[in-house]
Every structure is written in structure tokens, then in C-alpha cells.
């Protein structure tokens, strides 16, 4: 099976379709994170850190998410990573959507509804990740950190991602972030979900029809 091409492409190529895809994916991503926070069964790694920081600062979850993303972007400088339109949109849209959805979605304490929110949140996160990444308008702050470190250290992306997320989870848990079954489910499911969905939503260069020779 051919590997899906995810290299960034300029916004001038099919701008309307790709912009809509990017913003829709980011909005869904923010929604999925908010769902996980209301399920109270464990957050994804960066959510664990965001919640831990939130408890010590009094800032909203979305604001903390944005601040962490900006801090991660500063780490791009020594790694010589270049942000794209999608990188900036990632910081803004996800941060706003997390707080908007949390404002209307109450905390769940019934186990059935907690599980519904957890499974729905993880599944939606996979759909959202494939959607915004598939727009090919620039990586998110965390994705760029991962690929930048992999390039600079010569280590595999899988190893670097695991190292980053372990560090983030440990730091977040130490600050009081929620670690639980949902964290494990997310770690096991998000990779396969995203990989399965990406070929369905990734933007591809239009194929030019080859001119047939005239006989």
C-alpha cells in the first residue's frame, strides 16, 4: 500500500475546499477534547498536561491549551521548523472550540454517559485529526515538534512521539491532571483510527489526463 503524502501544499491550491476541511477538522478536534474532559475517565496526553496547568493557574482549559501550543511553537525555533497557515489555525480554533463546547456540555457522573462521551470523543478525535492533517496546510504545534526532534536526533517518529507523550503525561499527572482508562484507550486507538481515515480525506493533487498520441 502506497504511503499517504502529507507534505504541506500552498494554500493557493484548491483554497476553498482545503480551508473548509482544515477549519472543520480543528473544530471537531476541539469538540472531541472537550468531550473527553467532561467524561472524567482519563484525558489524552496533552489534555492531562492542560488540565494540570489549569488547576494551578485558574485559566480556562482552552486558554491553557493555546498557551501550551504557543510554548511548543517556541521550541520549533532551534529545530528550524516552519509554521504554516494550519499551524496558526490549530492554536486558535482548538483553544476556542474547547471552551465553547465545555460551556454547553456538562460534566458526566453516570458511568454509561461517561463511556459514551469517552468512546465518542476518542472516535471523533481520530476523524478530526485525519481531517485537519489531510488538508495539508501545515502541521500542528505538537506534530511539528515531533517531526523536528525526529529529524534532529535521527530517532524514529514513533520513538520521539512516545517520549514526548510520556513526558507530557508525567508532568500533567504531577500537576493534578486526570489519568485513567481513557488515556490508555486514546493511546491505543488514535493511531490506527487516523491511519485508516487519512486516505479517505487527504487532499491530493488533481491528476492531469495524459494526452493521447494522434495516429
Task: Characterize the structure shown.
With 215 residues, the chain is mostly helical. The protein is built from nine helices and no strands.
Compact description:
The protein has 215 residues and is mainly α. Helices cover 71% and strands 0% of the residues. α1 packs antiparallel against α6, α3 packs antiparallel against α5 and α6 runs parallel beside α9.
What keyword list fits this structure?
9 helices; 215 residues; mainly alpha; globular
Can you summarize the main beta sheet?
none
Distance between the termini: 36 Å
Shape: globular
Global structural class: mainly alpha
Portion in helices: over 70%
| Overall average residue pLDDT | 89
Secondary-structure element series: HHHHHHHHH
Q: Counting H and I runs of at least 4 residues, what is the number of helices?
A: 9
| Low-confidence residue ranges | none
Number of beta strands: 0
Per-chain topology:
Blueprint: H1 15-39, H2 45-57, H3 61-74, H4 76-79, H5 85-104, H6 111-134, H7 141-153, H8 157-174, H9 181-201
Helix pairs in contact: 1-5, 1-6, 2-3, 2-8, 3-5, 3-7, 6-9, 7-8
Amino acid at each position: 500500500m502506497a504511503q499517504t503524502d502529507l507534505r504541506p501544499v500552498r494554500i493557493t491550491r484548491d483554497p476553498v475546499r482545503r480551508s473548509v476541511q482544515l477549519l472543520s477538522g480543528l473544530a471537531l478536534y476541539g469538540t472531541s477534547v472537550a468531550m473527553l474532559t467532561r467524561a472524567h475517565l482519563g484525558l489524552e496526553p496533552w489534555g492531562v498536561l492542560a488540565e494540570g496547568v489549569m488547576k494551578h493557574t485558574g485559566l480556562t482549559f482552552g486558554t491553557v491549551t493555546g498557551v501550551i501550543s504557543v510554548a511548543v511553537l517556541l521550541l520549533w525555533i532551534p529545530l528550524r521548523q516552519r509554521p504554516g497557515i494550519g499551524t496558526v489555525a490549530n492554536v486558535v480554533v482548538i483553544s476556542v472550540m474547547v471552551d465553547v463546547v465545555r460551556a454547553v456540555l456538562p460534566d458526566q457522573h453516570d458511568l454509561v454517559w461517561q463511556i459514551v462521551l469517552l468512546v465518542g470523543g476518542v472516535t471523533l478525535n481520530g476523524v478530526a485529526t485525519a481531517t485537519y492533517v489531510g488538508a495539508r496546510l501545515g502541521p500542528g504545534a505538537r506534530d511539528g515538534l515531533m517531526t523536528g526532534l525526529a529529524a534532529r536526533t535521527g530517532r524514529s517518529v514513533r520513538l520521539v512521539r512516545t517520549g514526548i507523550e510520556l513526558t507530557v503525561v508525567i508532568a500533567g499527572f504531577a500537576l493534578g491532571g486526570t489519568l485513567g482508562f481513557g488515556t490508555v484507550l486514546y493511546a491505543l486507538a488514535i493511531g490506527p483510527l487516523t491511519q485508516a481515515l487519512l486516505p479517505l480525506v487527504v487532499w491530493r493533487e488533481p491528476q492531469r489526463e495524459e494526452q493521447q498520441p494522434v495516429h
